[in-house]
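Hi R.,

As promised on Friday, here is the backbone we talked about, encoded as structure tokens. Could you run it through your design pipeline when you get a chance and send me back a sequence?
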């Protein structure tokens, strides 16, 4: 199976496991988990059959590590990015002093007024990796990289969470903690 086919399956999994599990007749369990067998059956029942070995490849080879299997390998979930109601069970964590967020320049005026808002998702996503965040920004237009003063946010009582693929999450980043990074 080529990279394009795997990417298409990854997008389908993102849709099902992050946004619309009901689109294939699933309900996300506690922590956003769903049984692998149930997922595979639901996908097959909706004309999108995926074999277990292909599912493992999608999870393991995904460049952003969006998905994870439970320790026993019987369940799967998306690590972050949900618009579906789910509590992923992440515990508060101490972030590095500075985090980064990538966006498109067309959103910059609004962000500098309102800060980073989660919108329909559960959290604002940030990273320690500038290049990854620039790639995120490029998906939406001309990219701009924002620096987040996570150290000061934490000192002022904001909570952070970190996922297994090192994406940092918070509810909101007020504008006073943001600065743009020149190209």
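Update: got your reply. Pasting your designed sequence below so it's all in one thread:
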């Amino acid at each position: 199976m080529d990279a394009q086919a795997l990417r298409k399956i990854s997008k389908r999994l993102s849709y099902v496991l992050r946004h619309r599990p009901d689109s294939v007749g699933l309900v996300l369990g506690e922590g956003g988990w769903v049984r692998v067998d149930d997922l595979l059956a639901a996908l097959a029942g909706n004309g999108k059959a995926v074999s277990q070995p292909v599912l493992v490849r999608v999870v393991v080879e995904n460049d952003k590590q969006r998905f994870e299997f439970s320790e026993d390998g019987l369940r799967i979930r998306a690590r972050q990015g949900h618009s579906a109601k789910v509590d992923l069970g992440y515990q508060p964590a101490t972030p590095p002093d500075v985090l980064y967020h990538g966006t498109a320049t067309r959103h910059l005026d609004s962000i500098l007024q309102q800060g980073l808002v989660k919108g329909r998702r559960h959290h604002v996503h940030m990273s320690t990796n500038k290049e990854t965040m620039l790639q995120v920004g490029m998906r939406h237009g001309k990219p701009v990289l924002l620096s987040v003063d996570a150290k000061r946010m934490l000192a002022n009582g904001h909570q952070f969470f970190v996922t297994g693929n090192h994406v940092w999450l918070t509810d909101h980043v007020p504008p006073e903690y943001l600065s743009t990074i020149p190209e």
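One thing I noticed while checking it: Residues 3-19 form the longest helix (17 residues).

Thanks again,
M.
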